[in-house]
Amino acid sequence: MAWIYALLIFIAGAIVGAFAMRLSNKGLKQQKELKKELDKSKYELEQFRQELVDHFAQSSELLDNIAKDYSKLYEHMAKTSTELMPNLPEQDNPFARRISTLEAVKDAKQTQDKQPRDYANGATGLLKDQKPESVADEPKPETEESKAS
Hints:
0% strand, mainly alpha, elongated, 74% helix
């Protein structure tokens, strides 16, 4: 009779175990689906962010082109207004006050376009106790200490 009770308890345990596995398996399945959706959402968010960055880069480039074209147009109008109407008083020429500022901007832009050099002409004397010839010949700028003396 003990074997019968043991067999019945074993069968009951197997049924309860199968039922528990079925319940926990649904949770695991649901968890895997949620993880999959989360990964998909993260990927879509990254794609959206990249598209947004690309959009702003392209917009910046387009705005830069518009600004350059507007500057060229304004410069053209200012130049032709002075060429076509040289006797027009300055107060009647709407571009007259901007012509001088355009020239200043042009000069500043030309100096900014020059690339800095990453080399020196001749020896610089950085690794020696001697000063280079080109620097030694130049006048030294006044400092607070030299002004006080």
